[in-house]
Fold:
Amino acid sequence: MIDDEKIIEMFFERSEQAIREMDMKYGKLCHNLSYSIVNNRHGAEECVNEAYFGAWNAIPPARPDPLLSYIAKIVRNVSLKIYWRKEAAKRSGHYKIALEEIEGCIADRKTVEDEIEARELACIIGEFLDTLTVENRVIFTRRYWFADSYKDIAEFMGLSEKTISVRLTRIREKMKQYLIEREVLV
Structure:
């Protein structure tokens, strides 16, 4: 499999092969990420294609490092945009359920006018994640960034769904306490 630097060079050369190589290397992860948010194979395919188009337009001048994080963030943002457009009124989406689980730990960011506060919150949450064990950080990230179900996380981690549920509850409580200690509105 071709390395990321070569793929990025292909983007700079404006070779369409860059998209094909990126898809061969990261396509499955991108599709799974999008599907976990939009919960629709066709919708996920559209999101990934839109994300690839976004990467095509951004590279160059961007030179992402690492490429996986860059494309995953684009896929996630496109998928969230589609999700909120189509599913915001429904309670049934499992991504909305994941968001509701964690929203009890942080204040509503929709009404915050100052983007600096949002960035500070992101830094504080990042610092909190650094306090977790690697296993708990993976569980938290898979649930709240990749929107994986408890079942998917359990299979990935080799643990039971109940264990995942309990750990996520404890992590959220720890995060809430961490935010309170740093005087972040909860």
